[in-house]
Design goal:
The structure is a homodimer. By secondary structure, chain A is mainly α. The first copy, chain A, is about 65% helix and about 0% strand. The first copy, chain A, is built from 6 helices and no strands. In chain A, helix 1 crosses helix 3 and helix 3 crosses helix 4 (about 60-70). The longest helix of chain A has about 35 residues, at about 75-110. Chain A is elongated, with a radius of gyration of 23 Å. In chain A, about 25% of the residues are buried.
Chain lengths: ~130, ~130
Amino acid sequence: MKIGEAALTSGVSAKMIRHYEEIGLLPPNLRRANSYRDYGTSEVHELRFIRRARDLGFGLADIGKLLDLWRNKARHSFDVKALARAHAAELNAKISEMEAMRDTLVLLANACNGDNRPDCPIINDLASKT
Amino acid sequence: MKIGEAALTSGVSAKMIRHYEEIGLLPPNLRRANSYRDYGTSEVHELRFIRRARDLGFGLADIGKLLDLWRNKARHSFDVKALARAHAAELNAKISEMEAMRDTLVLLANACNGDNRPDCPIINDLASKT
DNA sequence: TTTCAACTTTAAAATTATGGGATAGTTGGT
DNA sequence: ACCAACTATCCCATAATTTTAAAGTTGAAA
């Protein structure tokens, strides 16, 4: 199938498929005589793998490692688990950071009248912090 | 004072000060005869304002609006509050998304033996989702 | 058969916010 | 006068994706 159909059935846009190939995440695709890329079920399967990993927030570097582990029948599940745990830890760190931001914002917003007068604790906070 | 001192006392790097000026977040700075930028206490105050807003996760577009509101003595606190609430809502959306990712990852990782055998629920999940 | 819409190709650039480097000019103290 | 430390501008890099543009290909209708 051509790239458009592979994109539709895998959920990875044609742009991204070409991009992943360009950066080496996917092996260079064999071309038909007309220079169009040609995809089969196994390539679509790989694309789905990538999309799922992306949906879980993995960066492309990690996705490359996961693809290698997937292809490697002699892999150790230890290595996969380590990647997943490390990524979960990263997510937790970012979540904590954003929660702190949100909590501060909610506090400030709750203290703000939200009327047509200029006085505002939010602006005061932004203006006063050293 | 010169840009280096303004950077130190405001917590915004010299690179970023120049960048903010270039993209119009800050008004073009008057230059001394030697073409060096010159900053006073009010500029440093503005830089601190920007840094605090950045620490709260506001994007530069929002920071521009907040700066306008700060400068505008006839502002309505309603407008400030709306920006803060909108940003808090964005944070909440991202937090929820990342929590869902993390929870899935933790579930999968807990189900994984993490030994030297290849069998792995994490890989299976990535490979099987449509 | 011509033609036209819908595809594909490559390449380049925008996005967001920041950091890094190169090169050149300026300052200030010794 | 000299030299380290500063400043100036300009370009590049990051991460992942979208956008744009220009050019070639296909398939089917008119």
